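Teaching soon. Got one?

===
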Amino acid sequence: MILFPHLGPELNETVYLMAAVAAACAVPGVFLVLRRMVLVGDAISHVLLLGIVLAYFVVKDAASPLLFFGAAAVGVLTVALVEGLQRTKLLKEDAAIGLVFPFLFSLGTLLASMYLRNTHLDVDRVLLGSAELAFRDRLTVGGRDLGPRAFVLLGGTFVVFVLLIALFYKELKLCTFDPGLAAVLGFLPAVVHYALMTSVSLATVAAFDAVGPVLVLAFFAVPPVMARLLTKRLVWMLVLSVILAVTAAVTGTLLAIELDITIAGTVAGVLGAMFAVVYLFAPRAGVLAEMIRRVRMWREFHETLLTVHLHRHAGTPAEAEESRVDGLHEHLNWTEPQTAAVVRRAVANGLMVRAGDCWKLTDTGRKRAEEIVGPRLGERGASAP
């Protein structure tokens, strides 16, 4: 199916491939973000070369599917090594990643440079990917062309992830948010953890050759973070993460094709721009929403402070002076414009009314003040049984 007829079949396949990469990485990325393990995903995306090289030494075939599983195994090994160092209590997680990731990555790069010079496993392709050329690597079964190998692999990976999450949603949710309770209930959080890390490795390997580790990490981190800013519910985080990732992938790919520039870099740039928009304008957790919330709290604070002031002096000899319309700002140590703005909002909210030259609290304003300082002493005695 060709969604963009003006591009032709090959470029359409490239768009589909990038969408499949985005969806396949965004799903496990949600759990990486919630578990604060995005850096582990970064480490996995960089050390896969070592697994590919080691598997190639065994099978001597650069097209063998065993390279896929070898790379995934090294990804899981990376997680095990990081956690093993962390359990010694001598290193924190970031330091353990900083030790394991560069060592395994450099080892894989050295082996590829030394022994695989005549294969497609060159260092530039490993680092940058080749989304523009991925459509040339076809998957053929029984003489029938099923499309780009990476697209079929990533599409299948995404479907498997969705099925696994549907089957084990409760276990994943509990082990992510409360692993202690999950262990007490017998859910084996360690097994769930390594199953998740295996899924991350599989998604990374599937996308590795097409887009490289940098864009894989971007899809792991950015769409889930945007979804986290937009919703607190896990199921909607998963849905929004996939939608946002695919939107960025398709938009970035089309823009790169139009401008004739690198696809991976353009998609990463689109992801960054989308994150900036969400970060600024998310309805509940965005910067603008937080600023509005702070302004509203500041205004409510000043209105409450004004009601407390009037409540403290209500019925006292000093009331006429302390609640005087033209002298209120002097007693509160506010500027006249600030006092006028607070009074205007308090009147509009039904907290106070003008009575001659003074301000009086309404029942609503008195209740607000009593929530802070309690009833006045005389009123306490009057209300006692």
In short: The longest strand covers residues 144-148.
